[in-house]
User: What shape does this take?
Amino acid sequence: MSNWIPLWLHKLGSPPTFYRFAGTLQPWATTLALLLGAIALYGGLVLAPADYQQGDAYRIIYIHVPSAEMSMFIYAVMGVASFIALVWRIKLAEVVAMESAPIGAAFTFITLVTGSLWGKPMWGTWWTWDARLTSELVLLFLFLGVIGLYHAFEDRRQGARAAAFLAIIGIINVPIVHFSVNWWNTLHQGSTVNVLGQSKMSWDMLWPLLTMMLATKFYYAASLFRRVRTDLLALEGGKDWVRKIAEDEADR
Amino acid sequence: MPMNPTRKRRLTIVLSILAAAAVAAVLVVLALQNNMNYLLTPSQVQSGEAASYNTFRLGGMVKAGSIQRSSDSLKVTFTVVDAGGAMPVEYTGILPDLFRDNQSVIATGHMDGARFVATEVLAKHDETYMPKELKDAMAKAHEGKQVEEAGSGESGMGSRKP
Assistant: This one.
């Protein structure tokens, strides 16, 4: 029977178990993020050849595209966690959703800034209101809205539930960001990296980009684990398992 | 995990809110469909779709050999083409680095008779990246089909209509 899967998930969902689990994985995730990030930067900035059309200016893609992908990925994680938090009232899901929001907002901000820096020399403008740029800006506002709403309540769990609703409603924007370049005429070009089918980049330029996309995933995991652990300690302050950790720390 | 009634109720509420938000988003997008398009192509303009606009964006490819620069000012004239139309454009100012023959461009401006007078010209590039040597090798292999080759990346401009 597949009963052990819910059981295992159930256990992982309990704050003390997740606290230990995240504590074990977090250093690995940090190491992998730094290592892969360094390889990707070296590959992208040094090893990869210049582009036939944009010369060296295209190299900002190694920051821009992974950040953009992360902004949508983190929003999706936040949406799913919010959904679980609202329906099943699992405390860990609330914490994961709320602690994802600032990381996602940071990636979205980086996406917009690097895109702007790239747009000026190539397109000839810092900003334009086409569907891709506008929907990505809306994504930033959604992240900021979730953060703001969460902190607007006296009771943290009540705030998390209100913010989770906003997160779920806003998930509609994620496919709009992604498909905007196909649905409408935009200044922004289409997707270079395609999960299904051929990517439109030669391999010696593509592998550092894929490596960076992996590195940012590990960075997100590391950052999320660290934030969730801190939050769990604060939320469960009076519980025995937290007291035990505090005592162990005091003994050292 | 069996669902207890409370969870089932919450699930229904959350799913119906999500469904309502999705329907609202689709309706808004459909209602805005005409205004969501960032640009009009020369053939769209020639079929009268730009008639209701004072200012609009014209998008297409710079026709090879059509760029003419004035010798005593920053004035440039060129022709923007798409699959089924061509439009002469006049612009005074600094052009982006990528502006050249067969490049996709987006010009903001208004019609002046049959001419389009632009106040801003932006270059649109495609999503293809490759080293110069590879591009040259491909161009060599495609020799004789040069027109097709140059337009291959930009073909999305006209066809990317909903």
